[in-house]
Amino acid sequence: MSDASLITPDARPGRPRKFRAATAEAAPARLALIGIALTGVAILILAPLATVFAEALADGWAAALASLTKPDARSAIQLTLLITAIALPLNAAFGVAAAWLITKFDFRGKAFLITLIDLPFSVSPVVAGLCIVLLFGANSLIGGWLVAHGLPIVFAIPGIVLATVFVTFPFVARELIPVMIEQGRTEEEVALTLGASGWRVFWTVTLPNIRWALLYGALLCTARAMGEFGAVAVVSGKIRGKTATMPITIEMLYNEYLSVAAFSMAAALTALALITLTLKTALELRHADQLAAIRRH
Amino acid sequence: MTDIAAPIRAKRVLPGFTLSLGTVLLYMTVIVLLPVLALILKGAEIGPARFWDIITSARTLAALRLTITAALIATAINAVYGLLMAWVLTRYEFPGRRILDALIDVPFALPTAVAGLSLTALFSGNGWFGQLLEPLGISVTYTIWGVALAMSFTSIPFVVRTVQPVLEDLDPAYEQAARTLGASEFTIFRRVVFPQILPAYLAGCTIALARSLGEFGAVVFIAGNLPFKTEIAALLAFIRLEEYDYQGAAAIALVLLFFALILLFVSNRLQARAMRFKER
Q1: In this predicted structure, what is the pLDDT of residue A240?
Q2: Domain region containing B145
């Protein structure tokens, strides 16, 4: 074996390592793997995205826009934005509190708490919705009392908020925890010994250190909150113009064979999702230093 | 840290323990614990005999069988394709790599109902892919393959995103050592790289399986939802609820919750192992 064959291309002196390529597969193997990856993404990710817009515009822009400005569609869009606007601050506040608790203190049951925060990733959204119906439905103890006092939860906006929050509460916490673990407790402790109050430490030391991770988590939370279907479908009762969110409206329109209207609504949601993804990618590129911890954990 | 530091660590230095603990406990109780408790109480009220009857009824068994089979197919697809994706994204430099990396998150950001709707349109008889496949006698929509496809779509990011960071952080020295010892590239992958990423890989596959078992939005559009044929367990629970059969709904939901908790526990243990592996 010649000496040259022992040196991988990237280890050659004077050649800047562009990438973390420690392997040295033959070029055909590389090309084949990249080809499979690209084909898969084209078929399974790009094609569905393209279809949504193609079907929405099947009868032209005017028809698509007209279907989105109908009263029921407008109310669905407003409801989805309202639900997201309520769920996001709640989950952000919870996320910050949970991350502070988990990263700044040692206590018993911490590992269990972290597992519990992951629960919505594995529990079916239908099960989540069903749990809320069983707890707050008109037939239950709490739900019956609330309905008698004029505050129905299920088949009303509070139920949709609860279902959305159940499904989306881990996102902010999950992004903040690794970042705050890496930053440690020293900076906060120094601020404290210098005489800062607890809240001052949070606002002037912690928050600037975690703001991009917080925004990152908020973006993920927004994307999921706007698109939640299963949990909301169970609790919403699908009352047109009242408790039908955008994803619920898509299903209703589709079942009525109103293809253009269904796909127009889907295209609106897809556009929102793509905007979120673009912002998220921009954030990853610009604030790679702070967000690196998220990837590492 | 020596003995002198120990008592200081033990005493909580930073403020906010009570406030953050209170907030987290209150939030988790209202949002998660009480609703889950309500489900468990409903299940307890059914009684074991009736519970068994519901779970072993022909329609429930068919739904569970379909859900589990389709979720396993979806996870198998993701296990292969997700690993390949993570490998390509971390090891190769090629034009469009960043865009490809961003696109992996599309299934995560795209609402599941939209995913289901567009996959159905693509694979139905007159869709872009459907019209190519139907003449070959392959139908995807309204079959188990459609169910598996939808599940696979929504859970692929979980595999890629758990394997990718571990692959990025691998110490190249081990691979270079193997190479100097004359190992072939495939041997290096099999004996050096794969064992290092295995815990994270299994954790990613486990969480993808959990998501597939519970997936609803994407599946209901493409499945056709024929009882005994293409009806998933989550949908059957939903149907029972709409029939005001709360016990039937709760029994099926409890089975799904049971699977979800087990898989979550397994995945967390594997993740913990993956982290320990990294720190060494």
Answers
A1: 85
A2: 48-279
Residue showing tokens 């034009």: B95
Integer Cα distance of A265 and A247 in angstroms: 8
Q: Which among B127, B115, B151, B154 is positioned nearest to A263, based on CA atoms?
A: B115
Q: Where are the domains of chain A?
A: 24-56, 60-296
Q: Which residue has the tokens 């993701």?
A: B78
| pLDDT at residue A287, rounded to an integer | 83
A6, pLDDT greater than 50: no
Please judge whether A19 and B257 are an interchain contact, meaning their C-beta atoms are less than 8 angstroms apart: no
The CA distance from A163 to the nearest CA of chain B, in Å, is: 8
What's the CATH architecture for A60-296?
A: Orthogonal Bundle (1.10)
| Mean pLDDT, residues B96-108 | 91
Which residues 42-81 of B are in CB contact (within 8 Å) with A?
A: 42, 81
Confidence of residue A144 (pLDDT cuts 50, 70, 90): confident
Tokens of B99: 């865009």
Q: What angle do CA B122, B126, B129 make, to 5 degrees?
A: 40
Query: What residue type is B269 in one-letter code?
Result: R
What distance in Å separates residue A69's CA from the closest CA in chain B?
Answer: 19
Q: How far apart are the CA of A61 and the nearest CA of chain B, in angstroms?
A: 19
The answer to whether the CB of B104 falls within 8 A of the CB of B26 is no
Contact B114 A227 (CB under 8 A): yes
- The shortest CB-CB distance from A122 to any of B113, B127, B263 is to B263
Specify the pLDDT at position B10: 53
Banded pLDDT at B13 (limits 50, 70, 90) = confident
Chain B segment 184-223 residues within 8 A of A by beta carbon are 185, 188-189, 193, 207, 210-211, 213-217, 220-221
Integer angstrom CA distances of residue B188 from A31, A177, B176:
19, 34, 9
Beta strands in chain A (DSSP E): none
- The reply to whether B36 touches chain A by the CB within 8 Å rule is yes
Q: Are residues B57 and B29 in the same domain?
A: no
Please report the residues numbered 16 through 75 in chain A whose beta carbons come closer than 8 angstroms to any beta carbon of chain B: 18-26, 29-30, 33-34, 36-38, 40-41, 43-49, 51-52, 55
Same domain, B163 and B189: yes
Confidence of residue B7 (pLDDT cuts 50, 70, 90): very low
Nearest residue, CB atoms, B111 vs list A101, A113, A269: A269
Per residue in B119-165, pLDDT (tens digit) is: 999 999 888 998 899 889 888 889 999 999 999 999 999 999 999 98
Same domain, B161 and B87: yes
